[in-house]
Amino acid sequence: MSRTMLVGYDVEWWGEEPITPRFLREARRLHHALGIPATLFIVGRTLERWEPAFSEVASDPLFDLQQHTYSHQLLKTVCIDDGASVRVVPGIGLDEIRREVRRTSDLLRDRLGVECIGLTGPWCYYRGLRDRPDILSVLHEEGIRFTRTDGRNEHDWHPVPLDLQPYWYDLAGFPDILEIPVHGWHDSTIRAEVLGWNDLDGYVRSVTPYIDEAAAQDKVFSYLQHDWTSIRDDPEMTATEHLLRYAQERGLAFATYADYYRAALSSRPREKATARLS
Length: 278
Known about the structure:
By secondary structure, this protein is of the alpha/beta class. It has eleven helices and eleven strands.
């Protein structure tokens, strides 16, 4: 599936203000108006806090529900060099990763009837999990079959080029786990630290080159937004609408992350999809 835009929202707000329900209403309105599917990567605590709002979207055929861990703790340590300072944010241990993932998968199954096979790693990481087969083993045992963890450049910063396309974790010993990297900037970072929250036009201009490149070079563009950022200073998600319409005009197809994974898996030779390295 080339010339494709994958729209993924990290849904992670669990504060008192009803930001997530507002976002879900606007996102459903917008995506139904355009006929564009999307994936919600949901933090378990957010699902517990706003379960009625998620119950409404769980049966919506345009939306695929996956997970973003239970409490948004990093799976892997990042060492961020943003050009002005360097800071290290540690990841959690394997036992805690298992608890975070299992608890959220159980919530999705028990509360919404959803079987989770996909995960976004909080903050994302350089090289994804290619250097962490131990983490991949835990995720595989917990039923995760596609990840969205590769989303930082060699400085553990941004942006990530579109040259980095989806890849299988064959060399790590998990040929049925697909990494679908996040491209460009995380919307929360560029809007908060580079442009300013109210510069919606500037934000749109920062994203459209990735759409152009995907269209011109038959590539996949994996796009990240958050629930709380999507409606901050833009309650009707006008910037998101502009980007999605622009992608439609450029001829990009759309798919959920789960559908993209299933299509990619079905096109793999069977021996590659089932082989495990010793």
